[in-house]
Amino acid sequence: VQLQASGGGLVQAGGSLRLSCAASGRTFSFYYIGWFRQAPGKEREFVAAIRWGGGSLYYADPVRGRFTISRDNAKSTVFLQMNSLKPEDTAVYYCAAERSGRTTAADDYDYWGQGTQVTVSS
Question: Could you report how far apart the first and last alpha carbons of the chain are, in Å?
Fold first, then answer.
């Protein structure tokens, strides 16, 4: 299994970015695909998750209403649309996949992408 995250960059506060996570390999084993982020000096935190087969979405409170997670199974890709970005959203964003039906704990995820930097300037 490989997960390739992309789409990060530098944006001003209030702006938008769209992250992509392209999956390859044994994607049929996925239950949830999640996005996590890690800012310097902080622990990795859950951002959003989507059920690979559809129907369930989860968001962390700090991003609910601003971020939208979606998927394109035909392309084996999950997206994170990030609107109204704030400086506190600055972090390396990782996509991850898990097989057990658990959504928010990083330790429950089995596969990780390499991360993409998001920097929001004030």
Answer: 37
